[in-house]
Specification:
The chain is α/β, with parallel strands linked by helices. The chain has three domains: about 130 residues; about 100 residues, no CATH class; about 260 residues, no CATH class. Helix content is about 15%, strand content about 35%. It has six helices and 33 strands. About 40% of the residues are buried.
Length: about 575
């Protein structure tokens, strides 16, 4: 009897324990399911955040590029879809942009500012949002950015690519210098950077881009805030700081007093003049080549259009939206057809010759100063171009634009002291810029010798394409020292340039390599024209080419959960 009772107690206890264990198991399963669901939600939330951030970043990059290329407001602010994600199943993320005022107020016009260096900027604010949904999570990212627009000709040197400066004789550069890429500094004598602004988004090299040339000459860079120049030489820096002639990324880092870190070394040596990607230098957007093509932005905005379309040269004026032909009222010889032998292209090319003095005196120069000249028969095989001559005296701010190569013949924008004309803000944008001296007589042929140049002065901001040095090696681009292309023997002859040098794109038509060129290098008296700092007042903002940068002001994530 006692045994049966004991068995009953054990059975009851076992049942109780079993129930408890079952309850614990069920509770554990419930917790596990909840945990799994929550972890899945967290993963989806992380993925949604990543997608929204990626879309925001893409829209930000597109925004600065579009602003630099004169996109209309409705294009800047239209909703965009982005297909993002991995595994062959991209997610669609929608981004939006709206213009806002400073501090989040209603949108206003750009704010004009002038910094301590006299550089004019136009500042505006935009809010970028992107919303991504993944499973149970929806995340909206909101970024407020400040967009700064500088007239691109306020840089002494601006390259939307690698910048190579490798002169044979002494050379001095002034004005702000920026490259959306690497900078290569070398030369046969002394290269002096007389600027407190030397920036690149890549690396600084103390050698040529082409391998095997080694470090040559002396490079001196101005210390910011002083008149002292400090050298950039591979042999006077501790070996740990350099790999050959290249700054060693191994020693990149924030300034902490360690002389073996590049940022610390650069800041201590040049006092803030030299900054690379290690300092956080950001890309600056600039106009692309499509803005100068026929039917593009500058063609449509030009107040005067000079064209050859197979039936002679025609000139059209645009005023108050109306277009009228003015060819018949121009003095004889104002525009004419011609030819030129281009040694770099190794071809005889057809040209339009434009006499700037006759154009000025005819009273047809447009109010906005923008003259667009082109030949419709220009191709890469036959890069026909435009010659502008007799431009010594200009009547007002002048912007010359052509989709093909341009040849500036003789003194340009440099009136004599006794002249009734004054030096004007002037700019050229083209596929390739060529400078011909006052002695040019257009007798050069493939069989002739190289004609002797005469002393020439050019006051002009020049923006054009280049034929870049390949990253994998190959033909040298010619460097900044050959940014304007030469066709004469300038040896011992001075070419004085005051302006700026801007390589905005790859040349589309005039693509002959620098090694083809037949010329003697000039004595280069080149410098930045500080009068260009007032360019923000000289040209209409609608036609001014911009260098566009961006700074993030605020960031916010809004997380929506549909988790039960």
């Amino acid at each position: 009897m006692r045994t049966a009772r004991s068995r009953g107690v054990v059975l009851v206890a076992s049942l109780i324990v079993g129930v408890l264990i079952l309850g614990l198991m069920m509770a554990s399963m419930t917790v596990a399911q909840a945990t799994s669901k929550w972890l899945q939600h967290l993963l989806e939330q992380t993925e949604a955040l990543s997608l929204a951030e990626a879309a925001t970043e893409l829209r930000q990059k597109a925004l600065i590029t579009e602003i630099a290329n004169f996109a209309k407001e409705d294009v800047l602010t239209e909703p965009r879809t982005h297909a993002l994600g991995k595994g062959g199943k991209p997610q669609t993320v929608i981004s939006r942009v709206r213009r806002i005022g400073a501090g989040g107020a209603a949108a206003t016009d750009d704010l004009k500012t002038t910094d301590s260096d006299g550089v004019v900027s136009f500042v505006s604010y935009f809010q970028i949002t992107a919303r991504a949904v993944t499973g149970t999570s929806a995340i909206e990212v909101m970024r407020t950015v400040q967009v700064g627009k500088n007239p691109v000709f306020q840089y002494g040197v601006f390259y939307d690519d690698d910048l190579e400066i490798l002169p044979g004789p002494d050379m001095t550069l002034a004005g702000r210098i920026h490259a959306n890429g690497d900078i290569y500094l070398n030369g046969g004598a002394t290269l002096r950077i007389n600027s407190a602004y030397l920036r690149c988004t890549g690396e600084i090299y103390r050698e040529a881009k082409r391998a095997g040339e080694g470090t040559k000459g002396t490079t001196l860079i101005l210390q910011r805030g002083s008149t002292t120049f400090a050298p950039m030489e591979a042999d006077n820096a501790p070996a740990a700081r350099w790999v050959g002639s290249k700054v060693s990324p191994e020693y990149y880092g924030n300034f902490d007093g360690d002389p073996h870190q590049w940022v610390a070394y650069a800041d201590a040596t040049w006092q803030g003049t030299v900054k690379t990607q290690a300092h956080g230098t950001k890309e600056v957007a600039s106009p692309q080549i499509k803005t100068i093509t026929p039917g593009g932005y500058y063609h449509n905005e030009a107040g005067l259009v000079i064209e050859y379309a197979g039936n002679g040269v025609n000139v059209y004026a645009r005023r108050d939206g109306a277009v009228s032909a003015v060819t018949s009222v121009l003095p004889a010889g104002t525009v004419a057809l011609g030819t030129i032998y281009d040694g770099r292209q190794r071809k005889n090319l057809n040209t339009i010759e434009v006499d700037m003095a006759k154009l000025r005196d005819a009273g047809v120069m447009p109010d906005n100063g923008l003259v667009y000249a082109y030949r419709a028969d220009t191709t890469e095989e036959t890069p026909h171009g435009v010659v502008f001559k007799n431009g010594k005296e200009l009547s007002g701010a002048t912007m010359l634009v052509s989709p093909g190569p341009v040849y500036i013949q003789g003194d340009f924008n440099c009136p004599e002291a006794a002249s009734s004309y004054a030096k004007q803000p002037s700019m050229l944008i083209c596929d390739a810029v060529n400078l011909l001296s006052n002695a040019w007589d257009n007798t050069k042929t493939a069989a002739s010798g190289v004609p002797r140049a005469g002393a020439t002065t050019v006051n002009l901001a020049m923006a054009s394409g280049i034929v870049r040095t390949p990253d994998t090696g190959g033909d040298y681009s010619g460097g900044l020292e050959n940014f304007p292309r030469f066709h004469e023997n300038w040896t011992g002859v001075t070419l004085r340039i005051r302006g700026s040098f801007m390589a905005l794109f790859a040349s589309m038509y005039a693509t002959g390599p620098w090694k083809n060129a037949t010329y003697g290098a000039p004595t280069r008296d080149w410098g930045f024209d500080p009068d260009l700092l007032n360019g923000g007042n000289a040209f209409a903002r609608e036609i001014m080419p911009w260098a566009v940068s961006m700074r993030r002001v605020a960031w916010q994530d809004n997380v929506e959960s549909v988790l039960d």
